[in-house]
């Protein structure tokens, strides 16, 4: 009897705890003025976004910030957007470099606060094409500052044969790279399969890889099932893919420019390209937690990381287009902005930024329901089981 | 005097388990990925009716069983030698040697195995095995099984060794006096005495292997076990589904402990 009571109490407690977690605050207001720094700032970011010289002594845009503001930078790498959402929900972090498949989830969940861009002087220099976009603003209210954007690259071993030019090499059973293909281990990768289907099965009628109805989604999953025997590695830790590229155990894969750069620096015989069919990519936004314990330092960081100097540093180190127009004059390679198409909207119209799929189709179709992201997650789990 | 520790156990251990199980019954907001206050059975449905997960669970049990079998096969002769044949001085040294691996870190050992099995390719030497012999199992289930067996072997060895220590030499002598060959002695005298120890040792090797996901990440290549799927669901983030998946290992371990209990694993602790 006593045990039963204990169990019942625990169940009630569980319900209370879980219920409390489910609430989600509705829009705490943006800050109106900046105060003194709190001495620290906790950051969740993509690999390579927060460099303090420990990876490469010449790559450091953190130490100067710490000295200037007195805000000590604590940094955690998020390996996938999903992981970043999970980390931000914990409330332990102040700022996050969120991609488009995380931003709206964070806003809807009340995990991030609106951002008063007037408090961020460098915001004025951000490319207009990146301001007030559907992935960083809601009803004209900004929820962050644009960081930069780019396309996921196709990395290949230069000794394994001619350079690939098509995404078909990632999926086709007679791919010369069969067995040594490296795939990003996250549900959002289903969109890459959708791009493959856009090229090879036009009759499916996919126009946006994040707006898949059930038939299109099933076809994408079938393509991924067929791809499985070709895959040598599913990576989510960027260092895992880097190691595999260096050892030659994978010879083709979806990658980020920074991984390619790091592996090349270690002597890997690899290069990167973008396949002709269009690629998935990202447009990242620095956002501030609605539960931020260091809001002033967080604003200072957001201003710092999009300053021309730091923004140019990150853009070049990570291998992406910067968001600050003035960055282009400061990159070590004067052609960097040109090579990465910094203000080339035409080029980016061929890049499908990571976005959270919803049941309301993102491509505007209303006659059919699309598969929401939660189903993408379940399908990916099943595929990987 | 027993009340405070018992209350502690109830709150911290049973309480958190109950929270975990209860978590599996809550639904997730499709868009924000947050747990809502609505209850649902869909997580259990997802975790328990999908054939893809059945095969994953079967594979995980297979890995844990194989690890246990390998540990046992090596532990039996080694423990016999240490307990019954080695002289007192050698015995002390051997017992220290048995304990020694337990003092080094899990990650150190897992990465050590990784350095051994890493396949060579593209003109690179690869790991120790590949560069010495030109062959390596590469990353995958064989590497996972070998690594887990290496990690958990000391637990099996210690349990079996304790079993041999308890076996009076006179029993073995009596058996041979009565005309039994060594095989018959092993089967009819030694094994029955050892069963509880083996069962106790296997609880360590089986449960630690079943729940492991880090070794799989280090040497598993594309291999996956239950733990990886739980981690995956947790990071999705889909806490309720992760909770539903944990019911698999919980259920398996309850059944396993019950069976081992019947074999006497807990009688000689």
Report the average pLDDT across residues of chain B: 89
Question: How many discrete structural domains of chain A?
Answer: 2
| CATH C-level of the largest domain in chain A | Alpha Beta
Predict the CATH topology of chain B: MetI-like fold
Number of strands of chain A: 15
Structure explained in plain terms:
The complex is a heterodimer of chains A (385) and B (269). Chain A is α/β, with parallel strands linked by helices and 385 residues long. Chain A folds into two domains: 184 residues, D-Maltodextrin-Binding Protein, domain 2 (3-Layer(aba) Sandwich); 132 residues, D-Maltodextrin-Binding Protein, domain 2. In chain A, 35% of the residues lie in helices and 17% in strands. In chain A, strands 1, 2, 3, 4, 7, 13, 14 and 15 form an eight-stranded mixed β-sheet that branches. Chain A has a five-stranded mixed β-sheet with strand order 10-9-11-8-12, with helices on one face. In chain A, helix 3 runs parallel beside helix 4. The longest helix of chain A is centred in the N-terminal third of the chain and has 21 residues. The N terminus of chain A is likely disordered. Chain B is mainly α. Chain B has one domain: MetI-like (MetI-like fold). Chain B is 74% helix and 3% strand. Chain B is built from twelve helices and two strands; from the N terminus they run αββααααααααααα. Chain B has a two-stranded antiparallel sheet with strand order 1-2. The model of chain B has no long low-confidence stretch (mean pLDDT 89). The chains are: A alpha/beta (385), B mainly alpha (269). At the A-B interface, helix 1, helix 3, helix 4, strand 10 and helix 14 of A face helix 1, strand 2, helix 3 and helix 11 of B.
Give the topology, please:
The complex is a heterodimer of chains A (385) and B (269).
Chain A: H1 2-22, E1 40-45, H2 63-69, E2 72-77, H3 81-89, E3 95-98, H4 100-108, E4 112-113, E5 137-138, E6 141-142, E7 145-151, E8 153-157, H5 168-171, E9 181-184, H6 190-200, H7 214-227, E10 231-235, H8 238-247, E11 252-255, H9 257-265, E12 270-273, E13 279-289, H10 295-305, H11 308-318, E14 321-322, H12 336-339, H13 345-348, E15 351-353, H14 373-384
Parallel strand pairs in A: 1-2, 1-3, 9-10, 9-11, 13-15
Antiparallel strand pairs in A: 3-13, 4-13, 5-6, 7-13, 7-14, 8-11, 8-12
Helix pairs in contact in A: 3-4, 6-7, 8-9
Chain B: H1 3-23, E1 26-28, E2 35-39, H2 42-49, H3 51-85, H4 88-99, H5 106-117, H6 128-133, H7 141-166, H8 169-177, H9 182-210, H10 214-219, H11 226-235, H12 239-262
Antiparallel strand pairs in B: 1-2
Helix pairs in contact in B: 1-12, 2-12, 3-7, 3-9, 5-7, 7-9, 8-9, 9-12, 11-12
């Amino acid at each position: 009897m006593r045990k039963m009571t204990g169990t019942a109490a625990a169940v009630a407690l569980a319900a209370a705890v879980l219920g409390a977690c489910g609430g989600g605050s509705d829009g705490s207001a943006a800050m109106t003025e900046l105060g003194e720094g709190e001495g620290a700032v906790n950051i969740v970011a993509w690999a390579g976004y927060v460099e303090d010289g420990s990876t490469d002594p010449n790559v450091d845009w953190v130490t100067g910030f710490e000295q200037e503001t007195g805000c000590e930078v604590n940094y955690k790498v998020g390996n996938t957007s999903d992981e970043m959402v999970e980390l931000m929900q914990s409330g332990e972090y102040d700022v996050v470099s969120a991609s488009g498949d995380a931003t709206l989830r964070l806003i809807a969940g009340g995990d991030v606060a609106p951002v008063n861009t007037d408090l961020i002087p460098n915001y004025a220099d951000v490319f207009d094409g990146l301001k007030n976009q559907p992935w960083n603003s809601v009803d004209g209210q900004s929820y962050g500052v644009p960081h930069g954007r780019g396309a996921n690259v196709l990395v290949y071993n230069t000794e394994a044969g001619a350079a690939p030019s098509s995404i078909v090499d990632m999926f086709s059973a007679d791919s010369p790279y069969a067995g040594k293909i490296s795939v990003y281990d996250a549900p959002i990768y289903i969109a890459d399969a959708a791009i493959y289907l856009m090229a090879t099965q036009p009759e499916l009628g996919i126009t946006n890889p994040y707006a898949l109805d059930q038939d299109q989604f099933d076809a994408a999953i079938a393509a991924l099932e067929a791809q499985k025997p070709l895959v040598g590695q599913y990576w989510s830790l960027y260092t895992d893919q880097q190691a595999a590229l260096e050892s030659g155990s994978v010879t083709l894969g979806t990658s980020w420019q920074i991984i390619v750069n790091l592996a090349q620096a270690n002597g890997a015989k690899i290069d990167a390209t973008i396949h002709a069919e269009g690629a998935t990519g990202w447009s990242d936004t620095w956002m501030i937690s609605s539960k931020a314990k260091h809001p002033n330092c967080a604003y200072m960081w957001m201003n710092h990381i999009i300053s021309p100097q730091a923004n140019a540093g990150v853009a070049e180190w990570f291998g992406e287009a910067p968001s600050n127009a003035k960055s282009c004059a400061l990159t070590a390679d004067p052609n960097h902005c040109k090579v990465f198409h910094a203000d080339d909207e035409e080029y980016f119209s061929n890049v499908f930024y990571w976005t959270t799929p919803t049941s309301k189709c993102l491509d505007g179709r209303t006659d059919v329901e699309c598969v929401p992201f939660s189903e993408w997650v379940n399908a990916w789990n099943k595929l990987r089981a | 005097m027993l009340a405070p520790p018992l209350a502690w156990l109830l709150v911290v251990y049973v309480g958190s388990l109950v929270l975990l199980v209860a978590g599996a019954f809550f639904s997730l907001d499709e868009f924000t990925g947050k747990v809502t206050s609505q209850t649902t059975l869909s997580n259990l449905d997802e975790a328990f009716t999908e054939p893809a997960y059945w095969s994953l669970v079967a594979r995980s049990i297979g890995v844990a069983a194989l690890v246990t079998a390998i540990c046992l096969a090596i532990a039996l002769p080694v423990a016999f030698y240490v307990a019954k044949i080695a002289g007192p001085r050698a015995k002390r040294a051997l017992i220290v040697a048995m304990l020694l691996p337990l003092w080094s870190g899990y990650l150190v050992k897992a990465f050590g195995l990784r350095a051994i099995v890493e396949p060579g390719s593209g003109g690179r030497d690869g790991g120790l095995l590949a560069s010495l012999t030109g062959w390596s199992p590469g990353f995958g289930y064989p590497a996972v099984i070998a690594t887990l067996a290496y990690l958990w072997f000391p637990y099996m060895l210690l349990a079996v060794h304790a079993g041999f220590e308890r076996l009076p030499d006179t029993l073995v002598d009596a058996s041979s006096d009565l005309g039994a060959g060594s095989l018959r002695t092993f089967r009819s005298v030694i094994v029955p005495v050892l069963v509880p120890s083996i069962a106790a040792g296997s609880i360590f090797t089986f449960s630690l292997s079943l729940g492991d996901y880090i070794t799989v990440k280090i040497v598993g290549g594309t291999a996956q076990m239950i733990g990886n799927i739980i981690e995956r669901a947790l990071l999705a983030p889909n806490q309720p589904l992760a909770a539903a998946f944990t019911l698999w290992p919980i259920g398996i371990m309850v059944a396993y402990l019950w069976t081992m209990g019947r074999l006497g694993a807990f009688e000689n602790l």
